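Researcher: Structure prediction, please.
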Amino acid sequence: MRIQIKGGVWKNSEDEVLKAAVMKYGLNNWSRVSSLLVRKSAKQCKARWYEWLNPFIKKTEWSREEEEKLLHLAKLFPTQWRTIGPLIGRTAHQCLQHYERLLDQAQGRDEDDELDPRKLRPGEIDPAPETKPSRADAVDMDDDEKEMLAEARARLANTRGKKAKRKAREKMLEQNKRLASLQKRRELKSAGVSVGALKLHKTIMEYAKDIPFEQQPPKGFYEPETDHQVDLSLRSISQLEGRRRDAEFEKFRKDDNRKLKRLQAEDTPAALAIFDKFQSRNILKQKLTLPEPTITDDELTQIVKMGADVQQFGDDLAHSTIARTPMTSNIMEEARYLAATNQLQTPLEGQENIRREDFATPATPATFATPNPLKRLLAKNFESSKYGASTPSRYTEAVTSVYDDGASEADPIGAQARLDMARLHVKASILNLPAPQRQVQVSIDDISEAPMPHEANMEPDMDDVEHQRVSKKARHNAIILQTSASAFHRGLPRPLVYSKILYPDESPAGGAKEVMELVNREFKCVVAWDTINHPQPGGEPCMEPPVLDPLDPQFLEAATFEIETEVANLMQESDPDACYPTIARGINLLIYDRSFSAPDTHEYAEHIEEIGYNITSGRYIQGNGMNSKDIEASSSMLAKEYQHHLEALGKRKKALESKYDMFTGGYRQRESLVLKEIDECYDAIFRLGVDLEAYKDLYERECESIKSRTSQHFNILQREKEHAHHLQSLYQL
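Model: Predicted structure follows.
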């Protein structure tokens, strides 16, 4: 029978199963968690979680404050690493390992020492495998591991058991009850009955509303002051804080997406340029190729050891100067003290105790500079150097410089005054120099412009190379622009597709035939040259670049003068009523006379109507050279072109109308509302005017009636007074 001993190195698959089990069963049921792992016990699973897999474990490098705190707590709680770990924020094993590492550095031990008894030998068992990284899984797993993974997958994914069904049923009942209560409250609210949240039992206190142990003060003779009214307008923290930065960024992101979509619809090339700009970061980087190493691994290890020794020596013994006491490292001093304390024997042997200052505070204390009278003497002497007076320190501190420009108690003169005195001393020494006794003339040879030998082999500067490249390119562009046709310089329309250009086949008879052939050949080369060097968007340039001979500018000016002279002679000899000479005259004037303004088209209207497009030959010819079929085909083609043009204009009109509606729809709706409000205001003004006139009329009538009623009541009062006087006189005694 095979005996299975649980423990050993943790594998990657076991770590993943442990994480999933902790997510399902929690941190208080390690026996059930360990049942998923065949080779691990509950104690080992718990140790693995709390020593390595817990996400709250800090695995970064140790800081200076943590090291000082570790040494301080190690002196207060010796060997109590379970107590020290939570105080520092590390695990107990991390604290123990780093403490031993600090002691080794203080004693000057090598970390890679093969004779270190704490290192594992081949065949020994690791006493703490839970604190080590997991081992990669083998390609071919054992049957036990495959069975363990299958069982863990089945148990962790079990959602059809009795408990799972009961939990799901209770959750569904609770959800249905909540929805029914919410629906009932909504119906009552729509019916006009406001129902609040369910109130607790009377015997239970609501700490959110009531005040526990409240004692009402006894009523006195005077009313107490009313409490200050609480501003209920700000009911949430978001209203108090205002607009959050993430909300603003979200708004900006939505605006950018909306603008980008609009840019895609209106200007696709610009949108593609933006996409290319941001997608350039996702381009796969090429594989880095490094040269072969020139030193071996053993030599590199030896260099690293030498560097560590030099750094440790530099940290322990800082560079001292005559003006300061060298500063030492507190961590190394404390580590040496603890290492020496561990090596002490029993006190009965009578050895002397190690003298060490108290390391009470774990934080880095502020170390003040040691006052040195020698430095003041050096500062007073202006001839002394200002170097070598800095305080060496392992960590940079803010130290006030003693070389201040102004005077102080320690330096009454001041550095600036000493500098001025030194300058005066130098000037006076130069003026007191003796006069020259001999004069020597030296003839210096002219410096040749030939480059020096070291300059000939010197690599040119990239700025000069770039400047030469730009100037060369500018000269090349100037040559290309000079050899370009005048149609490109004047911005005249040019053919888009070079292969579909039709050249005239008619050539005059006689000796001028060879001349016209040369002219046509040069004309074709110039057109092909322009299609290659100055391409048009959407056009097809010439596939074979032509060869153009460089032309002299003087030759071009002479040729232009000859052409102008010949054209002027032809214009005088030609009939102005003829079609083609008149058109040739207009074209020549447009090309060679820049001050010429284009004539009216009414002069050429009759002649232009005689020209039509021949589909068979694919060119414009005179109408008298076309038959009825060609005229009909040309008219149908023009009709189709006009129809396509109208359809395109109609689509553009619809797009502009939709765009106009989108931009002006809100304004028009607002305009209708404003007009409606204006009409209502005019109606209200009219009604108020009518009411005003009515009340004015009523006021005038009331004033007249008041006078009549006043006089009437006054008469009645007089009659009553007279009647009372008569009765008094009649019945008086």
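Model: Residues 475-629 form one domain.
Researcher: Thanks, that helps.
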